Amino acid sequence: IAYITIDIGFADFTCDDVSCLGPGIAAIETNLPPVLAALRAAAPTTPLIGMTIYDPFLPAWLDGDETLARMSVPIVGMINDALTTAYVESGAAVADVAGAFSTTDFTTMVSGPGGVEIPHNVAQVCAWTWLCAAPPLGPDRHANEAGHAVIAPLIQDEVVAMGRINDSLLYGGVCSLYVEAADDAIAGIIG
Hints:
This protein has helices at residues 21-42, 66-90, 97-100, 120-128, 145-151, 158-170, 183-190; strands at 4-6, 48-51, 93-95, 109-111, 117-119, 129-130, 140-143. By secondary structure, it is of the alpha/beta class. It has a 3-stranded parallel beta sheet, with helices on one face. It has a two-stranded antiparallel ribbon with strand order 4-5. The protein is globular and about 50 Å long.
């Protein structure tokens, strides 16, 4: 095994209500360390990379519940602190998915549905997950193909990133890659 990526935490929340956040954090703190220890014991030399989570409550903004959207960010921050602590204590690297999804950015406003201005973080989580999708695809907490394209480079390892992209494609997804590099550097790679 070349690497192990860990995307865990959402299943520890039994509902999408604020009342489930405390028990969910406690479940992560209880459940994740033994999982990481078992993975480390099974693959002692294999790199482990754990991911933080984006905020699944941000779409509440679109339903008019700006308070819930704002209140959820520091709580999701506590979830990510619990995840990060468990990952670091187990020797795993951490991929900052919350940062890539601009989870805390309520300041930057962008054009949303119907041309209404919405915060950047709400727009990102809607664009990169199924949370704002209509049935039958959504709403769903999982990243969509665009979200996986954002998550893959966070791993900081080309082999791991390729694995995430391959997973997306194998399960019927479409993958778009966003590359930040000088044109001559890209030309050197693709010839």
